[in-house]
Amino acid sequence: MAGEPQADCLFCKIAEGQIPATILRETETTVAFRDINPQAPTHVLVIPKAHYPNAAELAAAEPQIAADVLRESRAVADQDHLESYRVVFNTGGGAGQTVFHAHAHVLGGRGMQWPPG
Ligand code: 5GP
Ligand code: ZN
Known about the structure:
Elements (H helix, E strand, L loop, with lengths): L9 H6 L7 E4 L3 E5 L7 E7 L6 H7 L1 H17 L6 E3 L15 E5 L9
The chain binds guanosine-5'-monophosphate and zinc ion.
The site of zinc ion has 6 residues, from α1.
């Protein structure tokens, strides 16, 4: 069923506590944890507990939970005292997505270039 945990999904396992992560925040619908390979002083992933392969699929099926992910992204930035930060949803392998469970990257704590690489 849509949104159900997938046995072979890394982020479902983190959401269920089967794989350890440095968890910053948790809500009924989301978990925020530090990226294992940080690309900035703050690099946090905000995931829905429900499994959807990317942010667009999440928003189509569960718009409230997609909004929760955005709200929690700001909460992470507030928690790390970031005035400016970047929220990224890599969508598809060509855009750099490697884990096919929807997630927001929250990046901050250094200057950011535009356009991104
Ligand atoms: P994507 O490339 O799909 O947009 O982002 C996946 C992110 O997950 C990468 O930034 C990668 O460093 C991170 N990641 C991969 N495996 C783990 C893990 O086991 N724990 C944590 N905390 N992050 C992970
Ligand atoms: Zn998953």
